[in-house]
From TrEMBL, chains A, B:
The gene is fbiA. Transmembrane segments: none annotated. It is an enzyme of class 2 (transferase). GO terms for molecular function: LPPG:FO 2-phospho-L-lactate transferase activity; magnesium ion binding. 7,8-didemethyl-8-hydroxy-5-deazariboflavin binds at D50. Signal peptide: none annotated. This is Phosphoenolpyruvate transferase.
Amino acid sequence: MRIVVLAGGIGGARFLRGLKSAAPDADITVIGNTGDDIHLFGLKVCPDLDTVMYTLGGGIHEEQGWGRAGETFAVKEELAAYGVGPEWFGLGDRDFATHIVRTQMIGAGYPLSAVTEALCARWQPGVRLLPMTDDRVETHVLIDDPEAGGAEGAAEGRAPRKAVHFQEYWVRLRASVPAHAVIPVGAEQAKPAPGVLDAIAGADVILFPPSNPVVSVGTILAVPGIREAIAEAGVPVVGLSPIVGDAPVRGMADKVLAAVGVESTAAAVARHYGSGLLDGWLVDTVDAAAVSEVEAAGIRCRAVPLMMTDVAATARMATEALTLAEEVRT
Amino acid sequence: MRIVVLAGGIGGARFLRGLKSAAPDADITVIGNTGDDIHLFGLKVCPDLDTVMYTLGGGIHEEQGWGRAGETFAVKEELAAYGVGPEWFGLGDRDFATHIVRTQMIGAGYPLSAVTEALCARWQPGVRLLPMTDDRVETHVLIDDPEAGGAEGAAEGRAPRKAVHFQEYWVRLRASVPAHAVIPVGAEQAKPAPGVLDAIAGADVILFPPSNPVVSVGTILAVPGIREAIAEAGVPVVGLSPIVGDAPVRGMADKVLAAVGVESTAAAVARHYGSGLLDGWLVDTVDAAAVSEVEAAGIRCRAVPLMMTDVAATARMATEALTLAEEVRT
């Protein structure tokens, strides 16, 4: 069975671990979000691709969910001693090596997809990991800019705003201020990376793990051609709600859902994807009341436990998703 | 007193520490060799500039003479795990941070001289450290290439040869094979870095520390304009022999001296620089017999202890050099 998964970072990576356990013989292609990518210290950092790679390759910091296990921070401390920031992005020494290799290869002319394949040659994640695109896409978030103040905005009766890199919003500001818009800068001009459209066209099942529907899965879908390919693939597309009991299971998905005018409920996220894209949707048992609402929107829905407490629980979620896929196939 | 010093790595850096101790009020400008510079892992590494900076700034690994004290090697181990080499160049985590900052600044358009100034803002070496040039110069060494074998070289009756980067010759091969030539690639097209010629023109004394006369001081002198400026400065130029008792005090200077047809003796090195450049020369007391030979070549010479065993001994060497400078000034 050929499974295509659109993955963000932690949620996507943990789901994939469960999926591999549930379907050990499946041929899994992961289309990874690169809208979170950021250049730090002159190095290209791909947080979501790395989280998938480290998690499936056995190198992840388990408790933290991102970064490497057993990290040290000598490089970061030295950079701070040089007065070179930002200090709010936690890059460990082991992680730095990944970014150094990636940046060197990109500098030598390799596209990100080839670099990712080379890095995975070490990690052996057991899936084919593709970036959504080889082109540069950077998710920016529009927030209020109290420092700008000034007459211009006031005269027009609105607060001045500014766009910040997603990582600045997410990591530095911890999504503590309202997001007025989420803009995947460069997405309109981006092309799917080699292999992405072929994988979708050849898939038996397409899964949306409980990743952020706006800044993870949404950014992947913003690359022209990907959403269309999924809608036209003619195979079951099943998602798992990242919202449980009206709150994100982890992270701050509610903040960016608000920016796109979507309520932070399991049903609202399903409707956001829409029946044109989604055939099936899993909500948590606490959201069982949402099932009829989702089905009314033309999306088959089941309520099952959706807490990825361990690999076994996550594998059961993956099995439920694959079971629902078979149900909607007929 | 304005002192200009042409410095390589360890020998130059240690001499400078003694000079600062001997002449605490002097205004010292160091013209650093950049022919050893190498791009590793996509990062620009300047071993000699860094050795001077770390040594004078209190960050050097004292026993080793290069690199940072208290180093860890997480990045290097990870790069090896990715199969990315070379593994023979020992970059520690702390050191990596320096190269990351440098590479980022160069990528942003700053010349090496500005980058060096920025790095020194942290280290406060107590001297003005200038790269010899902002242009790329890479010292290559011509060696036999037994692997090439083949008919071409044999037909011409000579062994095939190849040029390797100086660091590959020095660090990987440990100068274990004969050097047929030392070529500062790019030197002919290089311009002295901003401040270099002004510092020489404004100097009261110019010193050649016991650095490698071929690949350190020699490379600096290979940048068009520097040798001429020194010869025309009209101030005492005094050097200290890196050869003591017919052998290099440290390193493998004899190997590269052979490549330029210079005997590995204190007197031969003085004659190699020549009386057109050098006014005074210090040899070690064990080489006292060389004094008359050097003086016969038109260079004032004194035999004094030249082992840089500690800062105090090195400061005495610096004092002897400054004293000799005053002698030759009249």
